[in-house]
Amino acid sequence: MKQQLQAPSPRPDRSDPSGLADLGDVIDVEQAEAALVEHYPRLVRLAYLVLPPGRSRSRRVLAAHGVVQRALPRQRSSIRGLGLPTQRAGTEAAIDPGYAFVRLRVLRAAIAAGRVRRLPTPPPLLPQVWGLSLFPRSGGADELALDQALSALSGPGRAAFVLRDLERLSAPEARRVLEAAGVADPRDALDEAEEAETPAGSRDRSLLESPEFDACALQARPTDLIRRRQHGRAVLAAGAAVLVCGALLGLPGDGWGPDGAAAPEYARNAASEAALDPGKLTAASASAWQTAARQDFAAWPARGDRVHDKALLRRALAVWARPGAGVPVSATPGTPAGPAAGPAQLLFAGVVDHAVVVLFHDGLRVVRYAEAADGEGQSEGEGAALDFARTDGAAADSASALVVNRTEGNVRYLTAPWVKRARLVDLLKPDAAGEATRIDAHGVTAPVPAPRPVESCTTWPALRMGGRLLTDLGELTPARLTYGTPRKPGEVAAPQARTAWARTACQLTAVRGQGVRAVNSWEFARQPLPGGAGEAAWLCTRAETWRGPGSRTTAQIQTPAPGGRPYAPGVVAARVEGGTACGPRAPRALAGVLWKGADGRRWLLAAGSDQVASVSVSGGVRGQASGRLLSLPAKEGDRAELSGRLVSGRKIGALG
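Above: the chain sequence. Below: its structure as tokens.
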């Protein structure tokens, strides 16, 4: 359901220099109502832009309509001293005083809502929408950037921005309106609005008048239909129980009210009670990471616009301790999904896109609680979800970011406090510089595309943060990509490293969802190809997990790429699950493959790392080579067994 309402600009009154001749010193209720009805879409847009950002888009829309509808005075009102702008000449003539009067009341209410946004208030009688979630149409990257920039401003700062750049008031006029609206320091508000970093188009109305901020052109979606149906069937059965046990359910720590989607309590002891108390949560200071002996998740400060929302934190802790039957719970392999042993550390609490997200850290795991922003504050905890990821032993190189939200193929990261810049790159385009990714005041990145595991692998997004290269593998913790020897891997920075990963990235689909901590690619040999076909690179790629076991290793050969495809994927020669192959405990490799040349002839190619002194093969192909490279003629379908000897005299088998 969409409703498109146009918001005409308020009509000027050019008949009188003051703009107040027809109205005198007072405005009647009927005159205020006429101005409100005529300019209703514009007033709602203004309220939507000025209201606090820390609420869901649906609730913000309803709040904007409520603010405007309650702006109608109950009786005739004086307009003296209200800071109404004076007459200007030409196309910049003064606005209708009736509109200016209603606009001032809207500004007062919207700014006041920002001052008390953390206090529990009863829902307004009007407007109310039951069973539907209403929100404006989504805009593009510029609209999102502008919304984030406005979110970083104070309430008076947003009001000043809207007055200057949407209402087109001069600085003195905007200052008078802000003073009349109760802003303590209008000059500071105007300076804050002027210094805001906004995208192009923010200062000429083109973005402010876009559908992204039109709270009258709405999209509608249903709330949780299944839960509503279940609740309807349960009303009669629950009525009697509520009457009998209502007093007991209201006692602190009991009942379903404060705990949202949590199941009934499972234990009563000091440790579990402390884990459920939001007042016991720990939080690092904003500068703790600068002096910490080890830069890991424990050094992250608590960030987000809801870190002081005790009701939200209590609900998240309760669901973590005992998730109800309707709460989806996911955990990376090897990660326990049980409750915390004691008070956890708070990393983040805030609204991200259309979700309210809380991130905890208990020393062993990162825990993500999320609920639908449109249902925030509801006792039922509709739309809640819980995710666990193991992060023990993290250090600065593996604690640079956490996934805070996913939506429509994009992902947002919460970055470590030591990360100041991020750049989005495509691993399959190693020569491209990439593009800067914005990080907001809470450390949350702008949406970046997530890799899509499809058959035609044409792109693989990754982020560079402080030199480190990270990519999303479908988990809370992005995997770090490195290049170099197993005992001393380095960053993917040099052209050789970037080219190797351009031809390896598509193989990462095999390790998605496996609890991967880091993936290292190591070129262990280069081999001239028979018939003068160029030179091939042999690489061993090892994915390490957070839990230790479960690593996955592949050996591949990257022959000269065909014309027009300089970064064609390499050919996988062997796969190994578990073990120490190509890792710091066994930094060596031996692999072989049947290769077909351009002339149609087939060859058995084999190569070992620099510790390999000789290579031999038996079976369908027989032969031996002194040194670590071997190439022998072969036929289609030949099967061979490859082995080698190290410089120390020990025998080594081939990978796979």
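The mean pLDDT is 81.
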